[in-house]
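Hey, I'm writing a tutorial for new members on how sequence and structure tokens pair up, and I'd like a real worked example in the thread rather than a made-up one. If someone can provide the structure for the chain below, I'll link this post from the tutorial.
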Amino acid sequence: MDGDELNTRKCVVVGDAAVGKTSLLITYLNGEFPEEYVPTVFDNYNKTVTSKVGNTYKLGIWDTAGQEDFDRMRALFYQGAHLFLLCFSVVSSHHDSFEGVKQRWKDELRVHGGDKPFLLIGTKIDLRDDPHTCDELQKSQLTPITTEQGRQLAREVGAEGYYECSAKKHIGLKEVFAAATEVIEKHDHKDETAVRVSDPKASTGCCLLQ
């Protein structure tokens, strides 16, 4: 197995439909925000990333459809994942995507994603101050999800951390994937430590009884 294969990691992006998953990825990868909304079924991208300590990874990023019609198919793409990015919109109507993290996605990741880590990502933060968006939320007596609410939700569902971004304004995108790289690296180290501890070759297994 060569070094490139050894350093390939899989990141799967999940969350309700229309929360901005595809916009997040395209803007991060290409530097341009896609003005036209095209619903994604499934897609994947590749990006070379470098951690703070200088380790380089070839990150395979998988974009998934959030509609329930794709539940069974989507779970197939979880196989071999090293990390999940669980996204919700801070301004979704009725807070649907925010509540869906607890009511739907947490269990789906636990069942189909195993014990792999995930980060919680709040998207569309530029719309927190948008008058029209705030007016629409106010009709349901709601306000945009705050940063502290996002952090609290991350703690409740066991996420490795909480990050916010705006694809349209190019805010926080690099930070999201820098955090993703650090989490992958941290869990790589944990896995290596577990192998060393459990490897019978690491110990002679020999003792002398008298």
